[in-house]
Amino acid sequence: MKIADILALAPVIPVLVIDDLAHAVPLGRALVAGGLPVLEITLRTPVAMQCLERMAGEIEGAVVGAGTVLTPSQRQAVADVGARFAVSPGLIEGETDEGPVPLLPGIATATELMAGLAAGFGHFKLFPANIVGGAEALKAFASPFPQAKFCPTGGVNAKNAPDYLALPNVVCVGGSWVAPTDAVRAGDWGRIEALAREAAALPRN
């Protein structure tokens, strides 16, 4: 699958920071059951790679990827354990659209967006969306960069997600609100599935 195909699967990509390996598979299954098959496992905890490998291998219907990918070697490493895509908070020097797994690079400025387009990318993560202008920034990017599509992440929540999803250059959003820390720690998979179901029903442009 190309990054465009992956981003089109659901309006929201859960951005997951998992501290306990035991939570990984039931968390992923709850999100998929709620209608969010694309899961971004951020490489921010000691067990992140193990979580990624288990979720990729054990959750039917899931498209599992890695977030916070910062180097070419990390892109290769996540591919080796089963990731279907990688997400970076910025542009990784020397990386292009070609690679071991599709890459969604992050941008925050027009200059970064131009560099990403020159490297062959067409889809980008706007990050941190809430700080760099949010929906208004994406509206401003639309005219000079009509070919660019976005998945804004950072400060996106249930309240403002519809504002992003209404924009023609937004394919989906990334957010952590569908997997609240307290619900994960409590093993409240029913609550997480319900939040996922609400997010999956959000209309897109």
Describe the protein's architecture and organization.
The protein is of the alpha/beta class and 205 residues long. 39% of the residues lie in helices and 15% in strands. The chain has a single domain, classed as TIM Barrel (Alpha-Beta Barrel). β2, α3 (48-58) and β3 form a beta-alpha-beta unit. α2 packs across α3. The longest helix has 13 residues, at 21-33. It is globular and about 45 Å long.
List keywords for this structure.
single chain, 205 residues, alpha/beta, TIM Barrel, four-stranded parallel β-sheet, three-stranded parallel β-sheet, 9 helices, 9 strands, 39% helix
Report the structural category.
Answer: alpha/beta
Q: How would a crystallographer describe the biggest sheet?
A: 4 strands, parallel
The CATH class = Alpha Beta
What is the element string, with H for helices and E for strands?
A: HEHEHEHEEEHEHEHEHH
Number of DSSP-assigned strands: 9
User: Under the CATH scheme, which architecture would be assigned?
Assistant: Alpha-Beta Barrel
Overall pLDDT confidence: 97
Question: What is the assigned CATH homologous superfamily?
Answer: Aldolase class I
| Uncertain residue segments | none
Q: What gross morphology would you assign?
A: globular
Number of domains: 1
Helix content: 25-40%
List the helices and strands and how they pair.
Blueprint (H helix, E strand, L loop, with lengths): L2 H5 L4 E5 L4 H13 L4 E5 L5 H11 L4 E5 L4 H9 L5 E2 L15 E2 L1 E2 L2 H9 L4 E4 L7 H9 L6 E2 L10 H5 L7 E3 L5 H6 L2 H12 L5
Parallel strand pairs: 1-2, 1-9, 2-3, 4-5, 6-7, 7-8
